[in-house]
Amino acid sequence: VITINRLIKKSLNDIFSYPAERIIVEHDAVDGTHFAPMSRSDARQTLKLSQEIKLVLYIGRILAWKGLEILPEAARLVGNHIQLGIVGGSKEEFVNNTKISNIPDNLIFYGGKDFADIPLWIAAADAVLLTSTAGNETSYRWTSPMKVFEYMACGAPIIAADTPSTQEIISATTAFFYEHDNAGSLAREILTVLNNSGEAQRRGAAAFEASRAYSWRARAEDIMQFMEEHAQLE
Predict the structure, then answer these.
(1) Taking phi first (over 0 means left), then psi (-120 to 50 degrees means alpha), and beta for anything else, what does residue 45 get?
(2) How far apart are CA 186 and CA 74, in angstroms?
(3) Residue 231 — very low, low, confident or very high, per pLDDT cuts 50/70/90?
(4) What is the pTM of this model?
(5) For residues 5 and 24, what is the distance between their CA atoms, to the nearest angstrom?
């Protein structure tokens, strides 16, 4: 059995009494030839974004289980001098999925983008968001978020919810954590990151180094080795 995080492995083992040694944990991964660090100013110039704005981006689809409901309140709390942006969906999608219609002016919706352009958007941000919620078990426990590996490979400062599934992959040395489902906590962490650019860059660089262990090729090789070893035991 191949699982994408340790929580799933433990659950399978507890429920089915399946031998732990026959379950391998292989998180999702990233294509390091596509996602890689680049200049923020160059990325903003290409995307025609202001060089002066403070910009924090969530890059991904707008889905009901992603924990995005706190973004409008977090945007209000950080103030209009900081822009929170969503790359991957429209305002209408957000309202339909979150049932929140009171959207502050500094929460910007950039719409869907081509996959080829996603590294540009990551690079353009002063920090990137990885949201999740305790209100959904998939979000809280059973996921291995693809975007976190993409963020890491780009060396971006990551602000992430402190949920178990996320903390399997990143730590306080590679990211900044806010209390899940808490807009005030998220706003405070955004301000911490934006006011401490040196530490943000250090953790972004550490995330980039950690991302080297999460290539699709390495993942495939580990799985093949695992399968070959257990095939020999039959």
Answers:
(1) alpha
(2) 6
(3) confident
(4) 0.95
(5) 9
